[in-house]
Amino acid sequence: xxxxxxxxxxxxxxxxxxxxxxxxxxxxxxxxxxxxxxxxxxxxxxxxxxxxxxxxxxxxxxxxxxxxxxxxxxxxxxxxxxxxxxxxxxxxxxxxxxxxxxxxxxxxxxxxxxxxxxxxxxxxxxxxxxxxxxxxxxxxxxxxxxxxxxxxxxxxxxxxxxxxxxxxxxxxxxxxxxxxxxxxxxxxxxxxxxxxxxxxxxxxxxxxxxxxxxxxxxxxxxxxxxxxxxxxxxxxxxxxxxxxxxxxxxxxxxxxxxxxxxxxxxxxxxxxxxxxxxxxxxxxxxxxxxxxxxxxxxxxxxxxxxxxxxxxxxxxxxxxxxxxxxxxxxxxxxxxxxxxxxxxxxxxxxxxxxxxxxxxxxxxxxxxxxxxxxxxxxxxxxxxxxxxxxxxxxxxxxxxxxxxxxxxxxxxxxxxxxxxxxxxxxxxxxxxxxxxxxxxxxxxxxxxxxxxxxxxxxxxxxxxxxxxxxxxxxxxxxxxxxxxxxxxxxxxxxxxxxxxxxxxxxxxxxxxxxxxxxxxxxxxxxxxxxxxxxxxxxxxxxxxxxxxxxxxxxxxxxxxxxxxxxxxxxxxxxxxxxxxxxxxxxxxxxxxxxxxxxxxxxxxxxx
Length: 607
Hints:
Layout: E1 2-7, H1 8-18, E2 23-26, H2 33-41, E3 48-51, H3 55-67, E4 72-77, H4 78-94, E5 100-105, H5 119-126, E6 130-131, H6 136-153, E7 157-159, H7 163-166, E8 169-174, H8 192-195, H9 199-221, E9 227-229, E10 238-242, H10 244-253, E11 261-264, H11 273-280, E12 285-289, H12 295-307, E13 312-314, H13 329-340, H14 346-349, H15 368-379, E14 385-388, H16 413-424, E15 429-435, H17 436-452, E16 457-463, H18 492-498, E17 503-507, H19 512-523, E18 528-534, E19 548-549, H20 559-564, E20 569-572, E21 575-578, H21 588-592, E22 598-599
Parallel strand pairs: 2-3, 2-4, 4-5, 5-7, 6-7, 10-11, 10-12, 12-13, 14-15, 15-16, 16-18, 17-18
Antiparallel strand pairs: 1-8, 9-11, 19-22, 20-21
């Protein structure tokens, strides 16, 4: 063993590798992304690593490898589990041979997500065991234990870190390479009675799962990470139940206090009932501090009812703890103080910091998506139009002054929502915007649906040659895999022609005049047609010299600012000016200025 300073996600990856990981697949999504990326960086050639086209594909791939006896891991964020839920629910019945861990990173807050889903609740729904680490060290150690339990019971296991564990850093104990476990898969053995799901098999499997989970509840009650900490004051008849990063907050909040009895729930499903009974014994009331759903609170309430215990369980359901958002050390300290009848901590009373300057998220300076949105906006002026967006950087097209995202639901949904609007409002010009990565992940089926059902819509694919929002991971259109292999690029134009889209035009959005004319021409056609705006992400290219504003020609109309909203153009001393540190020299503003006052590239502006 030796010490290393690691991010939580890196620690999880390293722990999985030390546990004998054979294959890892996933789809990028904050806060989970670095787990697979670290696995790729640390791959000595003994593992297969893959960014799959979406979470469903990733889970099914890993299941196939686990059928062979391999140790596999799948990575995703909480909304990705929705995509993977179809195979997951059936896989819970089929089971696996090799250890299979499904890492689902939850995002309380949410900090970078559409929802505040709680994977602990999904664990109960899918009837799968779930591990909930509270620190970077525990995440490193626990991932190996998750593999062991998965193999022992022949079931996939959910592993649920949250953002503060995933992105936290700590100096932890890690294994030396000579301590790594080596797993040699025995291969796939044909057994239709085991691997082919059908109603009778599912019925028997369901009975087995219910029996197994009762047994697991007892076993996990003795799991040393489900800890009970005695009260400092033996006469105290109050207790606190918590989990995950909230346990860390609680530990800090109680550091110098006469702490009550505490239970840390590390395996929220199957719930460690016998351990909970030991915790509840002799208590009058319990406060549950958790993120996000009242999972522990409901379980303890149920256990009290089942065993006739006169213990009052408090938490989210009783409004003693807030029912949304992430916890903090300050919020935990305040909740505990109210529960214990202590004076509120000083920090809790002044927890709200002074307001920060308003910094709304915007598209980067030089982002080609800005030009794409602006081209469509200009082309559709005066026409009844709707612009359906999707998940990606381009969701930021909803911000003023572009104001070009009317709907955004989940990955790939925009293509189908556009069709629904068009069928009800046939006089509306319907546009669906989707990125190149999202097109491959989840929008292809929507395009097939549009062609098959004769929709009238314009599909706009914003092709910036990367998965920009989550850190520039490769995808099928980039010609490269996460393992560094150079492969044939999947051509979006060919895919669209192959599914029956007859009109597919590709244009550089930074050539504004041509882009506007292309949109007018293509959008006027009936049926399903597509425009591919192709220009690389501003972050992955070498910027050109910044634009220059000629003060003699500038009339201070500020059209460049009011129409584009580019952070590379600022107001300085009351006049429009180029922020040289941000400007990439894309030239869009020079095409928008009605007075020719902005030139593309050239000498740096004088301050």
